[in-house]
Amino acid sequence: MAVPKRRTSKMKKRLRRSGQRWRAIKLNTCSECGSSVPSHIVCPSCGTYKGRQVVVIKDL
Ligand SMILES: [Zn+2]
């Protein structure tokens, strides 16, 4: 079985993993009701996405 000749250095490992860093979700404001909503997610308060009604929200 093939085995690596050299141990991967700390810098090489860190540089490789720099691209898989966790990033906080981007918050957008809803165009219909104006509330802050995570991007690429249907608005939980009015149920619209890209100016289109997607989910019907039932008021309790
Ligand atoms: Zn909304």
Overview of the structural elements:
This protein has a domain at 25-60. It contains 1 helix and 4 strands. The strands form 2 sheets. The protein has a two-stranded antiparallel sheet with strand order 1-2. It is 13% helix and 17% strand. It is an alpha+beta fold and 60 residues long. It is rod-shaped. β3 and β4 (52-53) form a beta hairpin. Residues 30, 32-33, 35, 43, 45-46, 48 line the site of zinc ion.
Q: Largest sheet, if any?
A: 2 strands, antiparallel
Helix content: 10-25%
- Radius of gyration (CA) equals 22 Å
Q: Write out the strand line-up for the largest beta sheet, numbering strands in chain order.
A: 1-2
Ligand set: zinc ion
List SSEs in N-to-C order.
HEEEE
Structural class: alpha+beta
Give the integer mean of the pLDDT values.
90
The low-confidence parts are none
- The rounded distance between the terminal residues' Cα atoms is 64 Å
Number of strands: 4
Shape: rod-shaped
